[in-house]
């Protein structure tokens, strides 16, 4: 990686290497993108097990079709996210859910999977409060917590990304979570 190479350039080069059959590049691509693509799958398919299955299909497709990636048409992460989204939608459409199989006369008896207006309002208030408390954290702690809990990165990945010892990263996150808890309990 050259000093001027961006993360997008690195991903694009890894996809090109995967197209040539490079297993190490495939592993790097997986480690760099799996948490983000798993999030894409989870947004479409709320069932975690199903989303994991779809993610596996996504990477099997990437392995087979890496040669079709064109950096002039889309960034690497956009191309990968599109594959994940399309695979998740395909899975959702192909799997008959219980609501799809119920006769129309039972439609009134089926529970509404959406939140009630009161629960939606409470969730919105909770989200705003969490954001306010997150904004009070030191930038490093806030960034680590967001990456670990919202993007799904492991502590080891975070330590590697920022070049700090694993124990320090764990301590920063733990202290940040303690600050968050204190703020949220007020």
Can you walk through the features of this model?
Helix content is 73%, strand content 0%. It has 186 residues and is mostly helical. The protein folds into 2 domains: 7-98, Rna Polymerase Sigma Factor, Chain: A, CATH 1.10.1740.10; 115-185, Winged helix-like DNA-binding domain superfamily/Winged helix DNA-binding domain (Arc Repressor Mutant, subunit A, Orthogonal Bundle). Helix 3 packs across helix 4, helix 7 crosses helix 9 and helix 8 packs across helix 9 (166-185). The termini are far apart.
Short description:
The protein is mainly α and 186 residues long. It has helices at 7-19, 23-44, 48-65, 76-94, 98-101, 117-135, 139-150, 155-162, 166-185. Helices cover 73% and strands 0% of the residues.
How do the helices and strands line up, and which of them pair or pack?
Layout: H1 7-19, H2 23-44, H3 48-65, H4 76-94, H5 98-101, H6 117-135, H7 139-150, H8 155-162, H9 166-185
